[in-house]
Amino acid sequence: MTTRLHRLLPDGVKKTRVFLPDTWMKVLKPEKNEHLPKYMVKFAVSPEMNADDVREYLKKIYQLPVREVRLEIRQGKMIRHFDEYKEPSRMAGEFGKVLDKEPDETIAYVTMRKDFNFEFPELFSEITFEQELKQLKRLQQSVDKANELAETQWHRKGIPAWFN
């Protein structure tokens, strides 16, 4: 799972070595029409990872009670260009010429123990409308001050105030 590199330091040097994996995992929020049980978690994983890698990664690093891992490989979307062809031809096909394809993505559905409850973390706190309005007013005041300063220094157009 890690890059196989020779040691850069000689054996006599006492230094802590940290080995980081080349793979990555990202927790995904289930889509609205996707109803997962509380003990199932959805991950976007590196395309090089297989089910055993995902299981070992979660068990060894995060000490999670993994029971089963299922992988789904989703094909990337095709990017097509319609403008060059006025009507379908043999070269363009029925749907236009394919220019590029987004990379495939690998989705892992991980089943934990039945007593494990996963809740998607709330990273951003809810800001009330009044707090957001105060932030916007402060931002508008700072923009107004910057505009006033720019008007007083008309002969230094495009030069920041800190540059003397």
UniProtKB/TrEMBL annotation:
Molecular function GO labels = structural constituent of ribosome
| One of the GO biological process terms | mitochondrial translation
User: What is any one of the record's Gene Ontology cellular component terms?
Assistant: mitochondrial large ribosomal subunit
Keywords (A to Z) from UniProt: Ribonucleoprotein, Ribosomal protein
Gene3D superfamilies from the entry?
3.30.70.330
Write out the similarity annotation: Belongs to the universal ribosomal protein uL23 family.
Q: What is this protein called?
A: Large ribosomal subunit protein uL23m
Q: Which organism is it from?
A: Trichinella pseudospiralis (Parasitic roundworm)
GN (gene name) = mrpl-23
